[in-house]
Amino acid sequence: MPHLQSIIHPAGIQAARVSHLWWVMFWICAVVWAAVAVTAMVAIARGRRGSSTATDAQMARSVTVAGGLSVAALLGLLFQSIVTGRALDTLRSPDALRIQVTGNQWWWDVQYEHAVPSRRVTTANEIHIPVGRAIRFDLLSTDVIHSLWIPSLQGKIDLVPGRLNELWLRADEPGIYRGQCAEYCGLQHAKMALVVVAEPPDDFERWLTANRAPASPPTTPEQQRGRDIFERGPCAMCHTIAGTSAGGRSAPDLTHLGSRSTIGAGTLPNTKGYLAGWIADPQHIKPGNRMPPTGLNGEELQAVLAYLETLK
Amino acid sequence: MSAGSPARALDVSMLPIHAFGHRSLMWWATMCMVAIEATAFALAITSYLYLKGRVPHWPVGAPTPRLLWGTVNVVILVVSAWPNLMARKAAERFDLSGVRLWMAVALVFALGFNIVRFLEFGQLQVRWDTNAYGSVTWFLLGLHTAHVLTDFLDSSVLTAVMFCGIVDANRFVDVSENAVYWNFVVLSWLPIYAVIYLAPRFV
Amino acid sequence: MTPAEAPRIVDNDPRLAPGGLDEERRRLEHTWRSPSGLIGWLSEVDHKAIGRRFIVTAFAFFVLAGLLAALMRIQLARPDNTFLNPDLYNQVFTMHGTTMMFLFAVPVVLAMGVYFVPLMVGARGIALPRLLAYSYWMFLFGGLFLYVMFLANVGPDNGWFSYPPLAGPEFGYGKRADVWAQLITFTEVSSLVVATCLICTILKMRTPGMSLNRMPLFVWAMLVVSFMVMFAMPAVMISSTCLILDRLMSTHFFNQAEGGDPLLWQHLFWFFGHPEVYIIFVPALGMMSEIIGTCSRRPVFGYLVMVLSMIATAFIGFGVWVHHMFATGLPQLGQSFFTAASIMIVVPTSLQIFGWIATVWTARRLAITVPFLYAASFFFVFVIGGLSGVMLASVPLDRQVHDTYFVVAHFHYVLIGGSTFPLLGAVVYWFPKMTGRMMGQWLGRLSFWLLFAGFNLTFFPMHLLGLYGMPRRVYTYPASMGWGSMNLLATIGAGVIFLSLLVFLVNVITSLRAGAVAESNPWGGSTLEWATSSPPPPYNFLPQPTVASREPLWHPELASPPVVGLESEKRQVLVTAVLDAEPDHRYKVPGPSLWPLATAMATTLMFIWSIFQAMGLVWGAIPTFVCLVGWFWPTRGKERLAASPPTRLTLRESLS
Fold it and tell me: Between chains, do C588 and B39 touch, taking CB under 8 Å as contact?
């Protein structure tokens, strides 16, 4: 659907303001273009006949008028832009929900901030937000410059190493919105997407609480085996699953992997089949990304999948 | 425009075949180079001030550069403008022995400020790879050094030409224009000196 | 000068009689000839020969960059395509942008100036001809270096703008980013040198009578552009040097962990990068004026406004660079200034557009020639790009469309509509002068309409792709986004562009062989390049014309006496005063020499070595210094070459 990531199909107040600005600018520019095009064509027709009797003084007046109209149109556009800019600023509020997003090559680390450390929530590549509440994103980067962009909700801003940038937005309709990194960041810039789920505040609170909990313990022997492989094998070197001994910080937090709709930063749907393919050979799907082939045999892979399925 | 008839012509055969100063083509070429390099210096200085503005304390991780050799070089460079001026005046009089004398004197100064520049690097009290402060300080000094070095080299070659090459009117013009470049090297040192040595102390 | 030295008007000068002219023609052909043979070709210093080389080489790079674009479009024609892997795609889009910007767009417009400015100002040659030759070799060697490295899988892959930290020592693997940074050094040195030659020629070698307010508008454009080059290119020289230093010498200019700042790169790069696009654009404004004036058979309306507009565009162009950084999180107050400047810069160009439309409106029987078609398309194509640029100037809207295909659409509309279309028109317009043949009419019109259709088909859908959320610099996209059909359309359009350029090339080749022979002024132009044969002789004019109006060829009744008295036994040109072109002195320009090539080879060695070893800069400087001494040391051999070059040069003679 062309509206999954569309600037002109806004679902939040900020994007709506910009979309409105777009249409105002578009119509003014369309009229200006049409005027220039028509005048040029008339000029060519007149010029061919060589029949114009206009004096240079008359032409000077026409050019001055055209210049004046252009300046007026430009001032109109400038004014509209300033008005929109000011409006965008009004979303700031002290009781915004604060979410810290850190860009990495090629995934998004997401942390819901809280004064009490034990109440923070860490996830990756999927952001849930309550509808109707202002959200403030605090943006960082661990490596190169990325850019967080969720077109349905707000314009983009860069994640620059060494700087802290802010992004304010608000979703006004429940829905699932797609975002994508919008600053070239290397080999897999094309596949650094994210999913934003806007849901009613109660649903959001339920989600947040569920994600705050550590991973549910495995119940079957196969799941147990899967967790063992995860903790003792290469997975734990990079990934964290809260409640286990896997505490790697250089890859997405997988504690609640099962609750996410995509894997590989929006690259594939999160189903058992795709997950299997991803774990077996991530380089085939997203060549150059930082996850190496895990070298698990068929039985080990099934065990790990069984365990990961429990991480809802 | 054909010659047409009657065959009126603008006869320029009596015009001189050389000119000094802004009348000369090569003077404009020299000034273009000066403009380019001045822009480069201005941008390097701006980068220094930009990086300085991002931190509360400057210099970072190092003491301020020692003043001695940098200030000595201010003196040597400024004083070198005098034999440089004398060389230019001699050139404009077509005084070959005067040109030879004053260019040789100027070269002594040039050798001097190159040697002192080498000592200056040692007095910066920071390495280029320590941090951004070190990098941009070495960069500014290095940019000017490139000019100080090329000024010495090209003046040496020009002096050699005046001593043992074929000297015609245009060689005297070259000496005169070399003086323009020399003045640029001297003048450009002043703001760079101020930025490297004085800004960390007073600004 | 003393009264005895002053120029005089002479009546019935025998040097202008047919016998006198023939005699002078013989001598001038002898003095100004370009020696043949390989050594002669390598020692060339004639601005027309070098201009042709620049143009042909730049168009060769244009074709290469176009083929790279074709590869990109094939990859993007379908979602999840596997035609190019991500590493290759990233190299390809970087090479496309780098080639177009540094190896085609700027060199080709400067080259049109190199060929035509001396002719249009009535000079016998260009200022600093050997330096011009050096600039060509640096351009060629830089481009060859880039492509050799690309073929060796060491092509740059960080975009034409090469942002650190991605291009820095930690994330920019291998030598790719160093190759990019050094390519910059080659091309910037080349452009800076050409700009110097043009400024000296325009300010000091205009023929008597051509005061500044009688200069053709194309010459004004090249003067403005040359100044822009001088003030913009140092910024990218500085930044690319700092990048190489960060990567090779462990400096920390862009390393935030040690007090550097990745945004410092962006400021320095875009301080160059924005004027860069106006450097590409302003010469085309000059070409527009020439073509429209000639085809309308009247002087371009509003000469003063045209000149001031180009100057204003250049000035304001230096004050808008932050609009490339609106998404980086800079303070809002600063951003507003740049929005205002970015909107204001539209005004001078609008006035020029209205002036051209007024010229066409009041034309005396407009000639809708192929050059005119290209020029007229500006009103339709460039204006779209200009208006999308105004949209991008708005921070809120830019924050949505920045780094999307909307921007790709915008800059192709302004660069192709605003520069390439007029450039192709200028090529057709000036082809007869350069080659002595007219280009084919039918093929000319066909290639124009194919280009017009293909261009719009390729780039208009990209506006929509951007609005629908497709970011830039992505090697693929998912099928679920719904971007497939517009991408396919763009790819088909690219195919049409390819076809149109093929037709253009066929036209060039067949016209060179069998085109209608061109007289000296086939279009009825008013400027001095049309006052000499097609192609011009090596010494450009005999006799050197003077002018008494802006359109000398349209006012034979104002004929002013041509110049006589320049020596024809040596290469001598007339140097005049800056403001009103009063004759000042006669100046001997150098003859053919291999030193420019030798110095370029030494410089190339120095530049390439230094990206592998820091000391390469020092070792490589030694042969460079030696070559420079050889170049400038006065010898009798040099005097002989400036007076009477042999028909074939020996190696020894060329290195005198």
Answer: no
pLDDT at B5: 53
Token pair, residue A297, equals 């045999």
- C129-151 helix and C86-98 helix, angle to the nearest 10 degrees: 170
Nearest chain B CA: its distance from C292 CA (Å)? 22
C261 and B132 within 8 Å at the Cβ level: the answer is yes
C-alpha span between C621 and C614 (Å, rounded): 12
How many structural domains does chain C have?
2
Measured distance CA(C319)–CA(C341) in Å, rounded:
7
The complex's ipTM? 0.96
Confidence category of residue A112, pLDDT binned at 50, 70, 90: very high
Tell me phi and psi for residue B132, to 5 degrees. Answer: -65, -35
List all residues of chain C from 146 to 205 with a beta carbon under 8 Å from chain A.
158-159, 163, 165-166, 170-171
Q: pLDDT confidence of B185, banded at 50, 70, 90?
A: very high
Q: What sign does the CA torsion over B119, B124, B129, B134 have? A: negative
C210 contact B CB<8A: no
Alpha-carbon distance A17 to nearest alpha carbon in chain C (angstroms): 9
Instruction: Give me the CATH number covering residue A263.
Output: 2.60.40.420
- In DSSP notation, C479-503 reads GGGS-HHHHHHHHHHHHHHHHHHHH
Nearest CA in chain A to C477: A190
Residues B76-90, buried b or exposed e (16+ Cβ, 10 A)? bbeebbebbebbbeb
The packing angle between helices C370-393 and C441-467, to 10°, is: 10
Kindly report the pTM of this predicted structure: 0.96
**3 state SS of A107:** strand
Query: Would residue B14 count as lying in a domain?
Result: no
Q: Which domain holds residue A19?
A: 13-89
CA C433 – CA C523 distance, rounded (Å): 10
- N-terminal to C-terminal alpha carbon distance within chain B: 63
Using CB atoms, pick whichever of A74, A155, A182 lies closest to residue C396: A155
Would residue A142 count as lying in a domain? yes
The answer as to whether B133 is a domain residue is yes
User: Distance between alpha carbon C160 and the CA centroid of its chain, in Å?
Assistant: 18
CA contacts within 13 A on the Cβ side of C100: 20
- Between positions 436 and 495 of C, the ones with CB within 8 A of B are none
Output the pLDDT for position B4: 46
Residues 368 through 397 of chain C touching chain A, CB cutoff 8 Å: 368, 376, 379-380, 383-384, 387-388, 390-391, 393-397
For C251, the closest of B135, B161, B170 (CB atoms) is B135
Q: Do C361 and A18 touch (CB under 8 A)?
A: no
- Confidence class of residue B2 from pLDDT cuts 50, 70 and 90? very low
pLDDT, tens digit, 9 for 90 and up, residues C210-235: 999 999 999 999 999 999 999 999 99
Instruction: Report whether the peptide linkage leading into residue A287 is cis, meaning its omega lies within 30 degrees of zero.
Output: no
Question: What SS3 state is found at C386?
Answer: helix
At B104, which amino acid appears? A
* Claim to verify: residue C616 and residue C491 sit in the same structural domain: no
> Does residue C419 sit in helix, strand or coil?
helix
